[in-house]
Amino acid sequence: MKPDLISNDSQLNSSGKLIHLLGLKGLPKEQIENILNVASRLLDTQGNLKKSKVLDDMSVANLFFEPSTRTRNTFEIAAKRSSAQTINVDLANSATKKNETLMDTMHTLKAMQIDMFVIRHKKNGLPHHIANNIEGIAIINAGDGINAHPTQALLDMLTIQQEKKSFKDLSVAIVGDIRHSRVAHSDIHALRTLGTKDIRLIAPGYLQYNGDVSNGIKLLDNLDEGISGVDVVVTLRLQKERMLAAEIPNEKVYFDHYGITNEKLKLAKPNAIVMHPGPVNRGIEVDTAVADGPQSVILKQVTNGIAIRMAVMEVLAQAL
Ligand code: NCD
């Protein structure tokens, strides 16, 4: 599938309020900036998280149909830090296994008076389908197939903003399996909306982005060329679960060409930051010395993920 085919129109109501978070394509800049501002207010000057009462009396259900560590846990922590009740629906043992349709499961959960669903699913557009077929409940997309992962991109933007201040004059390199990466797809929309002019997508042809390349997006297959002089390097996991067996590259050959090592990082600006959405595969897309090195902000991204998820839920709660 080509990215960008799924519309996010139903995430805004007729007065332009955010009622679901489905994707960043088409989301106005003011909405993105508002979420970043709310998230920044939830962090103290040391970058530690505050607590909030905004979701008092609300319930948030996590529905993860795909594996997840940081996204599911940070959504749960974010909901709890905002004083909500949280429910992790045990999908492996749920009635969907007894052939209940997904929409019946959703309506059953809605009848339990849940206010927000956080949904991850391997099918592109599944959260959008649910949002279009159920009322009075806010849907948050926690990753759908290769399509979108809006909260990951927002936490990436928050991390960049903390480190670099302005998006306009930045050079950002996204390196690796861009074709199968919902994170890269959402990052591209966020960076474009926030005004970043130099976005370089670096990958071998068969893992390269196949979406819209208007608006100054550069496609490169050479890491040395692509990483030269950038402010931000976003590395990505090889998402083998989304590849055909014949497409899976030899990991050593891949690392030699696209792995981020300290030597490669020297080509970027001296104060460049290295990001990764996780899970990190050391020695495949990034060397351990870089992942744990002084330019890595990977763990900062994790903490920022809680602030962003609290902020998204706070903004959505205002429309409920
Ligand atoms: C990413 C995802 O699931 O899309 N991880 C995450 O949410 N932190 C990236 C990946 O799986 O490689």
Give the count of helical stretches.
Answer: 11
Given the helix and strand composition, which structural class is it?
Answer: alpha/beta
Poorly predicted sequence stretches spanning 5 or more consecutive residues:
none
**Cα radius of gyration in angstroms:** 19 Å
Tertiary shape? globular
Keywords summarizing the entry:
320 residues, alpha/beta, four-stranded parallel β-sheet, binds N-carbamoyl-L-aspartate
Q: Can you offer a commentary on this structure?
A:
There is one protein chain. With 320 residues, the protein is an alpha/beta fold. It is 35% helix and 14% strand. It has helices at residues 29-41, 70-81, 102-111, 126-133, 150-164, 182-193, 223-227, 251-258, 262-265, 288-291, 298-317; strands spanning 59-64, 85-88, 116-121, 138-144, 171-175, 198-202, 217-220, 232-235, 273-275. The protein has a five-stranded parallel beta sheet. It has a four-stranded parallel beta sheet with strand order 2-1-3-4, sandwiched between helices. Helix 2 links the parallel strand 1 and strand 2. Helix 1 (29-41) crosses helix 5 (150-164) and helix 1 packs across helix 11. The mean pLDDT is 94. N-carbamoyl-L-aspartate (NCD) binds at residues 70-71, 143, 149, 152, 182-183, 237, 239, 277-278. The site of N-carbamoyl-L-aspartate has 11 residues, from helix 2 and helix 6.
Give a short overview.
With 320 residues, the chain is of the alpha/beta class.
